[in-house]
């Protein structure tokens, strides 16, 4: 039915990106859906255009435009959440971070608070019989981008899974200006590293907080995989998932019957997310699987919507936390590591959920320059971003225990956090707390 229209819009990648002009804002799709063929074609235009601003989120491949234009005369690339590739580019001055709350991105685009996209480069599935293309593993805010873009170019990949919604998971051919075709497997995440004893201890403490009927959100990293393994081997049942990210660790939980969504108040029986990153097994599992529903990020990550499910459990990681409860999860000094993501949203949403519990996890120490350092610190590193302010600091978990910071004074927080620190650093932290006037004569460390 739409074959003629499809053929009329079909171009080579090189032909399609000719529409990009000097000074344009170009938005590329996110995560594993980063449009590789269009990126490669755009990189060939170095020297032809100037001052083109390109933005994406957590590209799982290294953008070719960055390598092709190290002087940034043609292209300036920026990301709303750094992947490992973007982190390396950032250290070379080839990628800039876009601060912002991920969940606010759709409304910011629609309301004009962001520079409007001149050209949208979006990877999708092939169309169905009704002329719809699916955004695959990254609904994110693709629909909002397409609504505001002056020109839309789709990169059609027949290896992209068709992920059911939800809502706003598709775009119709009538809305599209040009189509290019390229077949390749989506990038996968490397297997999780073997968990440490400290990570196992943290996971064990968290499992104690999950009960039958809980609704889960895991952040990115090795810790969620460890927790998922423990849940899969537990007696827990009737769990739900309302999350920002779908990961490979969810597969076992669904196949073993631990997760069925039966007790959810909204999106019952559905595992809800806005993007997926993981193994090829995950992408295959997502394909037309009615157990999943992908939504745009302003729906998945809105605290009020998160709170609608009872017993919402939010488990996220951090880089460091200071004695006041300030949580820095995305940078180390001026070095951007990742991004704000949904940590703040899910911390707030789980706190508002009936029976809900938000957690921020970290091992008490890390190695830096061959030296063991504490991740519980007197004050966060200069220039480090505060991802979650002390106002919303929830329960903090290290291998040494749990500390519920909500409603606690500054001196009580200092005491509780020092108890979670590695014993070798506690004395110095007490001295720091005294110097910061957050230690009283009644404070004590067990």
UniProtKB/TrEMBL annotation:
Which residue range or ranges hold the Acetyl-CoA hydrolase/transferase C-terminal domain? 278-433
Q: Which reaction does it catalyse?
A: butanoate + acetyl-CoA = butanoyl-CoA + acetate
Residues covered by the Acetyl-CoA hydrolase/transferase N-terminal domain:
4-183
Q: Name one GO biological process term.
A: butyrate metabolic process
A Pfam family this chain is assigned to: AcetylCoA_hyd_C
Q: Locate the residues binding CoA.
A: 219-223, 319, 342
Where, by residue number, is the active site? Answer: 244 (5-glutamyl coenzyme a thioester intermediate)
Q: In which pathway does it act?
A: Lipid metabolism; butanoate metabolism
Task: State the EC number(s).
Answer: 2.8.3.-
Q: Which class of enzymes does this protein belong to?
A: transferase
Briefly state the protein's biological role. Answer: Coenzyme A-transferase that converts butyrate to butyryl-CoA.
Q: Which family does it belong to?
A: Belongs to the acetyl-CoA hydrolase/transferase family.
PANTHER family found in the cross-reference section: ACETYL-COA HYDROLASE (PTHR21432:SF20), ACETYL-COA HYDROLASE-RELATED (PTHR21432)
Q: What is this protein called?
A: Probable butyrate:acetyl-CoA coenzyme A-transferase
| Source organism of the structure | Desulfosporosinus youngiae DSM 17734
């Amino acid at each position: 039915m739409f074959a003629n229209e499809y053929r009329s819009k079909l171009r080579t990648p090189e032909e399609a990106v000719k529409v990009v002009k000097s000074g344009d804002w170009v938005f590329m799709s996110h995560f594993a859906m980063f449009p590789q063929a269009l990126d490669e074609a755009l990189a060939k235009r170095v020297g032809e255009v100037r001052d083109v601003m390109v933005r994406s989120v957590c590209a799982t491949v290294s953008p070719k435009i960055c390598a092709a234009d190290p002087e940034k005369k043609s292209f300036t690339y920026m990301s709303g959440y750094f992947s490992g590739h973007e982190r390396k580019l950032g250290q070379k001055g080839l990628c800039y971070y876009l601060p912002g709350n991920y969940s606010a991105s759709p409304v910011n685009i629609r309301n004009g608070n962001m520079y409007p996209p001149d050209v949208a480069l979006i990877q999708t599935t092939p169309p169905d019989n009704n002329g719809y293309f699916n955004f695959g593993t990254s609904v994110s805010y693709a629909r909002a981008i397409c609504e505001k873009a002056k020109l839309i170019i789709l990169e059609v990949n027949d290896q992209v899974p068709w992920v059911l919604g939800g809502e706003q998971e598709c775009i119709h051919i009538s809305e599209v200006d040009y189509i290019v075709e390229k077949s390749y497997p989506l990038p996968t995440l490397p297997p999780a590293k073997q968990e440490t004893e400290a990570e196992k201890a943290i996971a064990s403490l968290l499992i104690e907080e999950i009960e039958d009927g809980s609704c889960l959100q895991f952040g990115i990293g090795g810790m969620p995989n460890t927790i998922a393994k423990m849940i899969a081997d537990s007696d827990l049942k009737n769990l739900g998932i309302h999350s920002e990210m779908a990961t490979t660790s969810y597969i076992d939980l669904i196949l073993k019957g631990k997760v069925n969504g039966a007790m959810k108040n909204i999106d019952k029986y559905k595992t809800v997310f806005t993007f997926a990153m993981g193994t090829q097994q995950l992408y295959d599992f997502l394909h037309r699987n009615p157990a999943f529903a992908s939504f745009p990020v302003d729906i998945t990550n809105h605290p009020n919507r998160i709170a609608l499910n009872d017993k919402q459990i939010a488990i996220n990681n951090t880089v460091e936390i200071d004695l006041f409860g300030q949580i820095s999860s995305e940078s180390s000094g001026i070095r951007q590591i990742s991004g704000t993501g949904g940590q703040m949203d899910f911390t707030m949403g789980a706190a508002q959920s009936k029976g809900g519990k938000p957690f921020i996890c970290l091992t008490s120490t890390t190695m830096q320059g061959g030296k063991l350092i504490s991740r519980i610190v007197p004050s966060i590193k200069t220039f480090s971003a505060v991802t979650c302010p002390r106002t919303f600091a929830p329960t903090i978990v290290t291998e040494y225990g749990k500390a519920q910071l909500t409603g606690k004074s500054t001196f009580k927080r200092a005491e509780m956090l020092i108890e979670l620190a590695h014993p070798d650093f506690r004395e110095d932290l007490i001295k720091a707390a005294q110097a910061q006037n957050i230690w009283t004569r009644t404070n004590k460390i067990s």
